Amino acid sequence: MLRIVHKLRCGFAKMTVREAINSAMAQEIERDQNVFLIGEEVGQYQGAYKVSKGLYDRFGKSRIWDTPITEAGFTGLSVGAAMYGLKPIVEFMTFNFAMQAIDHVINSAAKLHYMSAGGLKTSIVFRGINGAAAAVAAQHSQCFAAWYSQVPGLIVLSPYDCDDARGLLKAAVRNPNPVVFLENEIMYNEAFEVPDNVMDKDYLIPIGKAKIMREGKDVTIVTFSKMVKFSMLAAAELEREGISCEVINLRTLKPLDRNTVIESIKKTHRVVTVEEGWGQCGIGAEICSIINETNAFFHLDAPVVRVTGADIPTPYAFNLEELSFPKTHNIVEAVKLVLK
Amino acid sequence: MIFRISRSCFSSISVKLPPFKVHHLELDQLPQTTTTTSAELLAYYKSMQLQRRMEIACDNLYKQRLIRGFLHLADGQESIYEGLHAALTFDDCVITAYRDHCIALLRGDTPHQIIAEMMAKQTGSTKGKGGSMHYYKKATNFYGGHGIVGAQIPLGTGLAFAQKYNKKPNVTLIMFGDGAANQGQLYEAANMAQLWHLPAIYFIENNLFGMGTSIDRASANTKFYTRGDVIPGIQIDGNNVFQVRETLKFAKKHCLDKGPIFIEAMTYRYHGHSMSDPGVTYRTREEVQQQRKTRDCINYVKNIILENKVADEHQLEEIDNTAQNEIDIAVEQAKVDPVPPSTELTTDVYVDNQNHFIRGILYKDSILPKSQ
């Protein structure tokens, strides 16, 4: 039974991103016997962030596996199970901890199909929270979007809202390749109206396709995950000043939907990229390079402006943390810069 | 080393096994003898000779620069692979690191495929895209072929997990060396295997050196068969094909009944760690020669054959020549095989490769998804 928070009106319900991920996992575990969830505290504890709440009670210990605190071990174990033919959903409590297991994500999973000339594959999802939370300081706040996006053989997804979370996670589980699924802790609590079709057990979003959240004609804002929210707020604020922003939610970081970005640039001629992660070699840097290398460059009226996290390990103090990551006002300022 | 053999009847030959060392097990759970037959002895002899000749051929090819990169040879350790092949089935999974050619051979690749792979030819086991360290065969449950020391251990534990998940009456043999035996991920994986009663055999090929570092310099506890802590363990002579075979049969039963087990097989590699290691800076030439003279695993079987008049020297020499011939033909064929076509550069990155963007060295050389 899917728990629907608040049936608003016919055809819609309201749910949080947490519930969206939970319901997507529940449906996929129900659908395919080979799918199982594995990670720290995912079972009896109901999930460190309660994302897997209720799954252990519903599916039991044969489908929901609590592990010791041994990322390298259980990630390698999951990749091995995937090599045999199972379909693990590996939960990292945060992607910061996945650094202990990253060899298995990259060397054991991502490269395997190529090294084996197609002989072996791993249909596996690595999911967990990515990027900054609140007041968790330097070792718990890193965004890994750029690191994983670089690797051939991986698919990298990053949902923003419930629609994204459900459609992308289900697509990820059903995909035969290894998928890194970057969630956001702050977004877990955000509630969205969800049309009935999104709750369907076969609702899938195409991988590699960005979504235009808001159409506009003056500036293209390219972003993903939590930064979509701030970009939308910035766009609303700028609208009141007569500036029309087109907001693109990438949804997939690898393969990145260059065509949607290019088509938008042909319309607006100005681009702002927004990401929470550090600027060097980041997603914004990749967007700049993509534009540079394609005919989109000749449609630009101004250089691309990037909005990124500050180049620092994350501080603890609230006032300093506020200065570490992009906010709505930074995006507003960036749009005005690109229009100057 | 020759153990007393008795021939109780025309076809069955009794072999006394070397002593075992056990950890959390009783010695009387393990056999003291086993039996073999003429046919089986000759089959083991021939197969181990084929392995040996294949490895030596690779050494030669490397020196001729026809094999490049890393090359880790297993000559000296053939009885381990022969023993595991005799004890397990193709429904049992095997996974190892990069000293994997002999396992690839026993799990179904031909000498031609194996050598062609190392010679980077299209006809190689993985189309020339893997090389010496990356052999795989799903059909016979051989999962590689891994370059990162210790990575195969949790992976293998996952195979065992999947076998149990699917309620298979099968086990996974997870092979690694004395060097890898200090890896943290071994203990992470073995801990879960014990907790969840996974059918995992943790098999340590102890050839006394992790690259150039002796076991005494690397391991505070060199009794690797005890390193599983609460997990039972057995130490055996890896150069005795019969002891390997019987121990793995026991291990399989144990795993399916109770859970994981550690097996430490004492062995010796004649080559250095890899072709860039002469293998005599951390051990003496005399030691290597002594091992060849007194502990060679093929000579052990040869002596049983000769003592029991299963065959004579001349017949064995014929088998040697047949094996050498098979390897020579494979090498000559591989030499004339084509290299992979350049289109193979960008295939197999993804399962559904046609749906993905693969960047070329220049953007203009990129492969676009089929839909674009």
UniProtKB/TrEMBL annotation, chain A:
<dbReference type="Pfam" id="PF02779">
    <property type="entry name" value="Transket_pyr"/>
</dbReference>
<dbReference type="GO" id="GO:0006086">
    <property type="term" value="P:pyruvate decarboxylation to acetyl-CoA"/>
</dbReference>
<dbReference type="InterPro" id="IPR033248">
    <property type="entry name" value="Transketolase_C"/>
</dbReference>
<dbReference type="InterPro" id="IPR005475">
    <property type="entry name" value="Transketolase-like_Pyr-bd"/>
</dbReference>
<keyword id="KW-0560">Oxidoreductase</keyword>
<dbReference type="Pfam" id="PF02780">
    <property type="entry name" value="Transketolase_C"/>
</dbReference>
<protein>
    <recommendedName>
        <fullName>Pyruvate dehydrogenase E1 component subunit beta</fullName>
        <ecNumber>1.2.4.1</ecNumber>
    </recommendedName>
</protein>
<feature type="domain" description="Transketolase-like pyrimidine-binding">
    <location>
        <begin position="15"/>
        <end position="190"/>
    </location>
</feature>
<dbReference type="GO" id="GO:0004739">
    <property type="term" value="F:pyruvate dehydrogenase (acetyl-transferring) activity"/>
</dbReference>
<comment type="function">
    <text>The pyruvate dehydrogenase complex catalyzes the overall conversion of pyruvate to acetyl-CoA and CO2.</text>
</comment>
<dbReference type="InterPro" id="IPR027110">
    <property type="entry name" value="PDHB_mito-type"/>
</dbReference>
<keyword id="KW-0670">Pyruvate</keyword>
<keyword id="KW-0786">Thiamine pyrophosphate</keyword>
TrEMBL record, chain B:
<keyword id="KW-0670">Pyruvate</keyword>
<comment type="function">
    <text>The pyruvate dehydrogenase complex catalyzes the overall conversion of pyruvate to acetyl-CoA and CO(2).</text>
</comment>
<dbReference type="InterPro" id="IPR001017">
    <property type="entry name" value="DH_E1"/>
</dbReference>
<dbReference type="InterPro" id="IPR050642">
    <property type="entry name" value="PDH_E1_Alpha_Subunit"/>
</dbReference>
<protein>
    <recommendedName>
        <fullName>Pyruvate dehydrogenase E1 component subunit alpha</fullName>
        <ecNumber>1.2.4.1</ecNumber>
    </recommendedName>
</protein>
<feature type="domain" description="Dehydrogenase E1 component">
    <location>
        <begin position="47"/>
        <end position="340"/>
    </location>
</feature>
<dbReference type="Pfam" id="PF00676">
    <property type="entry name" value="E1_dh"/>
</dbReference>
<keyword id="KW-0786">Thiamine pyrophosphate</keyword>
<dbReference type="InterPro" id="IPR017597">
    <property type="entry name" value="Pyrv_DH_E1_asu_subgrp-y"/>
</dbReference>
<dbReference type="GO" id="GO:0004739">
    <property type="term" value="F:pyruvate dehydrogenase (acetyl-transferring) activity"/>
</dbReference>
<dbReference type="GO" id="GO:0006086">
    <property type="term" value="P:pyruvate decarboxylation to acetyl-CoA"/>
</dbReference>
<keyword id="KW-0560">Oxidoreductase</keyword>
